[in-house]
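Before a colleague's protein record goes any further, I have to sign it off. I want your independent view on whether this chain really folds as the C-alpha cells say. The record follows directly below this note.
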Amino acid sequence: MLSPFSINALTIGILPGHLFTLFCNDLLRAEASRIRLPQRLIDDTVRETAPDGGVDLLIGEPNIEDQPSSWGEWVPEGVSAWQYKSGKCPPAKELAGGEFQKWKVREAISRGEPYCFLTADSINPAKAGRIEEALREIYRTYGQEPRVRVYGATKLVEWAKQHLGVPVQHLGVPVTGWLPFDQWEQATTHATSSSQTNKEAT
C-alpha cells in the first residue's frame, strides 16, 4: 500500500493555479481547526472581492474568546495576510517590484501585520532567504517590524503531512485506516477518560 505520507514537492509544484489556491485554503482551514481558531475569521474570498490586490486569504483579529491557547508553528499570531504563487517562483527582485507592490500586500505590511508568501515551487533556503529579505525591506520602509513567513513546496509538504485530508483531496494521495485530527482527538480523549474511570473503579 502507498504510504499516507507519499507526497513530495513535485506533487504540489504541478498543481494549476486555481487548484493550488484551493489546496492552500484548505490547508489553512485545517490548521485553524487544529489550533481552534474559528473558521469565521478566515476570509478566502479576498481574490474575488479585491482583484489584483495580491492577497489570497486574510485571517481576522480574534477576540479574547477566540484566541487559541497555542498558535502552533505555521500560522502567525493575530491578523495575517496570505499570498499564493503557483508555478515557478520568480526571483526575489522580481517579486519585490511586482507581487509585493500590490495594494493589499502593501496595506497589510504598512499596518505591521504578518505577511505569508506560499509558493508551489521547490525553492532552496537561499532563495527563500532572499524573498524574506525583500519583504523585510518593505516592512522597514513603513517603519514596521518585519513579520514574514515564506513557505516553499517542501515546507508545504511538511505541513500537509499533518493534515492527511488535504493531500487526499487535492493531491490524490490514498489514505486507509487514518482518522482526521478532530476524530482522532475525540477518540483519544474518550479512551483517556475511560481509562481513568476504570482506574477509579478498581
Remarks:
- The radius of gyration is 19 Å.
- The longest helix spans residues 181-201.
- The chain has nine helices and five strands.
- The chain has one domain: 9-175.
